[in-house]
Design a protein that fits this description.
alpha+beta; Pemi-like Protein 1, Chain: D; four-stranded antiparallel sheet; about 160 residues; 4 helices; 8 strands; single chain
Length: about 160
């Protein structure tokens, strides 16, 4: 039994790659080359660009832009982005690095702001009819249960209840 265990350990140690100090130096140089210049936006120094919204030459580079959006009822604020901003109307255009950051945090979230109809069903009850797209995005099936929590006279939270079989 010991012989088999020794053979296994010996065979496993033969497959372990050895990283030399020369290889580490090469990798460190390659990483440094890749990082060089990547932190800077290609838009640095750009000013007096024509704004697509207000048609004035008032867009310039900023490195403290904020992306503020509400998706599916949840507010998301992403600060410290880089790009162009119009000093007249406030229009923003993000550079590629900032756009990737925005996409990273927003791409997997469903869009919000769905409108639904409220109708009288009968027997003193009302029904809420959700758009098909919302049902598809949230994967809601018929006969599912939901809990409605009023927040104010104009807002409520709708939570789906998981049914146990």
């Amino acid at each position: 039994m010991k012989n088999n265990k020794e053979k296994i350990e010996k065979n496993e140690s033969d497959n372990i790659p050895v990283i030399t100090s020369q290889m580490m130096e090469k990798i460190a140089i390659e990483i440094a080359k890749r990082k060089a210049g990547k932190d800077e936006s290609p838009m640095i120094g750009v000013k007096d660009i024509n704004c697509p919204s207000c048609q004035t030459a008032s867009m310039g580079f900023l490195n403290d832009l904020v992306y503020d959006v509400t998706l599916a009822g949840e507010r998301m604020v992403i600060p410290n982005l880089t790009g162009l901003k119009c000093t007249k109307c406030g229009e923003q255009a993000f550079d590629s690095k900032s756009t990737k950051i925005i996409e990273k945090y927003t791409s997997n979230r469903p869009i919000g702001g769905y409108e639904c109809n409220i109708s009288i069903v009968g027997g003193g009850k009302i029904g809420i009819y959700f758009p098909k797209d919302l049902l598809r995005v949230m994967k809601i099936n018929t006969n599912e249960k939901a809990v409605l929590t009023p927040l104010s006279s104009h807002k409520m939270i709708v939570e789906l209840v998981e049914l146990t079989a």
